[in-house]
């Protein structure tokens, strides 16, 4: 017996009593089913409420099945579904293949490759131009650097020169002043000279530095 | 709280969708070598900061890698699927120039993008209605010129089932 048909076998419940109790069912004799009038409906209780005591021994059996008919119907359905699945797979594969071919054709076309090569050539040219610009910049930088170095060296030289000149001038000035120094040799002569020419420091000056008043030396 | 980072506009969808560089399908990896300091790398830095989010948004399947302070001069390198490598020197260029250059050599042209858009549109019919995932409208009541949804505008009683049933019962 087919395993699916086992569901239809009645359990330990006395069936004839139940069959007699229910109204006219679609399959008389074997098992009670839901009559067309009464369909499952929740009604008063929720799904969480326990079933009532009157349903304690209730056995809900599925509708009865004719085994030969079932076999025949299953075989037919199997063949039908086999054919349909095969057709579907066939069509799917065809569509995918077409799409793939189209995509590849679009990518591998000669003009695309040509275009790509042209663009790459342009890119290389651009890189070459950039290289030239970079070399130009580097060269300018170098020149700038050299120029700056030269300038610095010149400035340094000039500074040294100016410094030396300064020092020279100071030395000369000192030499000049040295002529008026008082040495032990001309000490007495200078003292005599000072005593002979008394200088008068008693004068007043205004804001511009001109001498305004002189007091007579007493 | 919703604004993060120095230029949070870069995170907005509007900004991202304004990127116009869509790479050809042969480009797989993009590598950017740039320096974080230096006047010559300024354009590259701006490119990385402002334009790479747009590019990545438009090309989610392209891998983009950034390398900082590894070479004295900045450059971009693209790796195509046939093994070819494309070098782009970006020293002393502004970020706009860089994007234009990249778009020219490796981006899909406008015609191609439009063609693809048209192909995509052909797949779905705008007049059909159904689940939001596949159609523009879900119910017939949303279509202009059709009977409005009875949830908002009650149907005239001639179209209602209970009136028709009452009429039939009467007759």
Automatic annotation (TrEMBL), chain A:
Please list the residue ranges that the record marks as compositionally biased, kind Basic and acidic residues. Answer: 126-147
The places in or outside the cell where this protein is found are:
Mitochondrion
- Keyword Transit peptide listed? The answer is yes
Q: Which domain of life is it from?
A: Eukaryota
**Which residue stretches belong to region Disordered?**
37-62, 122-147
Metal-binding as a keyword of this entry, yes or no, is no
UniProt KW keywords = Mitochondrion, Ribonucleoprotein, Ribosomal protein, Transit peptide
- GO terms under cellular component: mitochondrial small ribosomal subunit
Q: Which PANTHER family does the record match to this protein?
A: 28S RIBOSOMAL PROTEIN S26, MITOCHONDRIAL, SMALL RIBOSOMAL SUBUNIT PROTEIN MS26
Entry's family note: Belongs to the mitochondrion-specific ribosomal protein mS26 family.
What is the name listed in the Swiss-Prot or TrEMBL entry for this protein? Small ribosomal subunit protein mS26
- Species per Swiss-Prot/TrEMBL record: Cyanoderma ruficeps
Automatic annotation (TrEMBL), chain B:
The answer to whether the entry has keyword Ribonucleoprotein is: yes
Residues in Ribosomal protein/NADH dehydrogenase domain copies: 36-109
Query: By its UniProt entry, which SMART domains does this protein fall under?
Result: L51_S25_CI-B8 (SM00916)
Reading the lineage from the top rank, the first entry is Eukaryota
Q: What is its main location?
A: mitochondrion
Q: Name one GO molecular function term.
A: structural constituent of ribosome
The alphabetized UniProt keywords are: Mitochondrion, Ribonucleoprotein, Ribosomal protein
One GO cellular component term of this record is: ribosome
- What SUPFAM superfamilies does this protein map onto? Thioredoxin-like
Q: Known Pfam families for this protein?
A: L51_S25_CI-B8
The keyword Ribosomal protein is annotated on this UniProt entry: yes
- Localization (cell): Mitochondrion
Please give the InterPro entries that the UniProt record associates with this protein: Ribosomal_mL43/mS25/NADH_DH, Ribosomal_mS25/mL61, Thioredoxin-like_sf
Q: Per the similarity annotation, which family is this?
A: Belongs to the mitochondrion-specific ribosomal protein mS25 family.
Report what the protein is called: Small ribosomal subunit protein mS25
Native organism is Dicaeum eximium
Task: State the gene name recorded for this protein.
Answer: Mrps25
């Amino acid at each position: 017996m087919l395993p699916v048909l086992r569901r239809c076998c009645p359990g330990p419940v006395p069936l004839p009593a139940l069959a007699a109790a229910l109204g006219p069912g679609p399959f008389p004799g074997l098992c009670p089913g839901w009559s067309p009038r009464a369909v499952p409906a929740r009604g008063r209780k929720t799904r969480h409420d326990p079933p009532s005591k009157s349903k304690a021994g209730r056995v809900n059996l599925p509708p009865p099945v004719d085994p030969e008919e079932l076999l025949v119907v299953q075989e037919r359905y199997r063949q039908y579904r086999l054919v349909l699945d095969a057709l579907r797979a066939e069509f799917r594969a065809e569509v995918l293949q077409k799409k793939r071919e189209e995509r590849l054709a679009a990518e591998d076309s000669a003009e695309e490759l040509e275009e790509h090569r042209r663009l790459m050539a342009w890119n290389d040219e651009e890189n070459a131009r950039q290289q030239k610009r970079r070399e130009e910049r580097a060269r300018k930088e170098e020149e700038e650097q050299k120029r700056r170095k030269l300038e610095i060296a010149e400035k340094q030289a000039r500074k040294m020169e100016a410094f030396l000149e300064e020092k020279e001038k100071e030395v000369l000035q000192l030499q000049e002043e040295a002529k008026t120094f008082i040495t032990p040799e001309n000490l007495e002569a200078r003292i005599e000279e000072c005593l002979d020419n008394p200088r008068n420091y008693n004068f007043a000056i205004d804001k511009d530095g001109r001498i305004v008043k002189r007091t007579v030396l007493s | 709280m919703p604004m993060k980072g120095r230029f949070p506009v870069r995170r907005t969808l509007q900004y991202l969708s304004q990127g116009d560089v869509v790479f050809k399908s042969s480009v797989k990896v993009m590598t950017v070598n740039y320096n974080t300091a230096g006047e010559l790398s300024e354009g590259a830095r701006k490119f990385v900061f402002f334009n790479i989010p747009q590019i990545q948004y438009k090309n989610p399947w392209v891998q983009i890698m950034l390398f900082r302070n590894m070479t004295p001069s900045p450059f971009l390198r693209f790796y195509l699927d046939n093994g070819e490598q494309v070098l782009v020197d970006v020293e002393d260029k502004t970020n706009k120039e860089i994007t234009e250059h990249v778009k020219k050599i490796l981006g899909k042209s406008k015609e191609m993008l439009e063609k693809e858009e048209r192909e995509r549109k052909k797949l779905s019919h705008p007049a059909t209605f159904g689940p939001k995932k596949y159609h523009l409208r879900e119910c017939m009541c949303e279509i202009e010129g059709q009977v409005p949804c009875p949830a908002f505008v009650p149907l005239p009683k001639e179209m209602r089932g209970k009136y028709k049933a009452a009429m039939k019962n009467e007759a």
